[in-house]
Amino acid sequence: MLKMAIPPEANLSLRWFFMGNCVLFLHYLLVLLRTTNDAVLITTTTHAVLLLAFVLINFLTIWVLYSRRQQQKAISLQSAFLGLVFGSGTILSLGHLPLAGFGWYLCVLSFFHFAEFIFTALYQYPSLTVESFLLNHSFAYAIAAFSSWIEFFIELYLIPTAIKFWPIMVFGLSLCVMGEVMRKVAMLTAGRSFNHYIQVTKEEDHHLITHGIYAWSRHPSYVGWFYWSVGTQILLCNPICLVAYTVASWRFFKERVEDEEITLLHFFGEDYLNYQKKVGTKLPFIKGYRLEL
């Protein structure tokens, strides 16, 4: 049985993601020390300063180690940042509701972007770049995320117990996990035929994938991403952003699917046309591109 070789970029990313996550262990080590007889030595201020120092040392180390290797530096910085977010989210998630919900959200958000890079490195290596984290997906994506944070904390301040409660959060978290798994299974199944960008030139290793999860949906990675996106706002109990995210995501994927299927019909012709007839998109009210005969 052949073993999968882990690309050096994936190893580097995993290493710094773990280092970023170490903020979690440092936090609980300091909490443990504060419960001892020497608690006076670890005040709340000291606790915060030590955590901040740990973060700064990590980023400074990356900057020095990879000062002449820009790609490694970019991968390491993004991985350490995502690890820090995941670790911080875990700290919050082990606290009290509703802040625990925001902690779950941070973990979900961080893992999504980290896993995008890792899966691309493992299964679509030729297309791997520092952009594969999708952290700079678009300006609109950043604005949407920032808006959801604002809504969460405004509602938390105005009505701290009326909206944020665990059954809704658990449902949202479950939807995020389902969407994440669906997208990654789609990436794994498609292998080299998957790409984060719509391809306009057919490569030699570009094949029409119709088995596995693609026998259920023509665009399972988009289905997963759509429900992941909606799930994040249910997890945060954000009614306004839930509507906005649903509408914006639906419009984005409707246009994306139609644009992609134009190229797929050009690449695979009648084979893709027959595939269209047999398998739906599974995105709500999105039929895809229809070839006029």
From TrEMBL:
The keyword Cytoplasm does not apply. The chain crosses the membrane at residues 12-33, 39-65, 77-96, 102-126, 138-159, 165-182. It is a multi-pass membrane protein. InterPro entries: ICMT_MeTrfase (IPR007269), PPMT_MeTrfase (IPR025770). It is found in: Endoplasmic reticulum membrane; Membrane. GO terms for biological process: methylation. One of its GO terms (molecular function) is protein C-terminal S-isoprenylcysteine carboxyl O-methyltransferase activity. GO terms for cellular component: endoplasmic reticulum membrane. Keywords: Endoplasmic reticulum, Membrane, Methyltransferase, S-adenosyl-L-methionine, Transferase, Transmembrane, Transmembrane helix. Its EC number is 2.1.1.100. It catalyses: [protein]-C-terminal S-[(2E,6E)-farnesyl]-L-cysteine + S-adenosyl-L-methionine = [protein]-C-terminal S-[(2E,6E)-farnesyl]-L-cysteine methyl ester + S-adenosyl-L-homocysteine. Pfam families: ICMT. It comes from the Eukaryota. It is an enzyme of class 2 (transferase). Catalyzes the post-translational methylation of isoprenylated C-terminal cysteine residues. Belongs to the class VI-like SAM-binding methyltransferase superfamily. Isoprenylcysteine carboxyl methyltransferase family. This is Protein-S-isoprenylcysteine O-methyltransferase. It comes from Holothuria leucospilota.
